[in-house]
Specification:
The chain is built from no helices and 4 strands. It has 59 residues and is an all-beta fold. It has a 4-stranded antiparallel sheet, with no helix packed on it.
Length: 59
Amino acid sequence: MVEKYDIIKDETKMKEVRYISNMGKLQRYDLAIVEHEQEPSKKLIINLRKNRWTTIGKR
């Protein structure tokens, strides 16, 4: 059985990414920080080791 998916959106954008690596007492942290697309006052933080993300910034 073949499933067909319609592509809703496919974009490529150039972004400046800041990579930060930090060694704690028990583990290493590798983070990527990207400016949020819709709100420049917010940042997108990506944990590269655990594949988790969040946004931080002023409301």
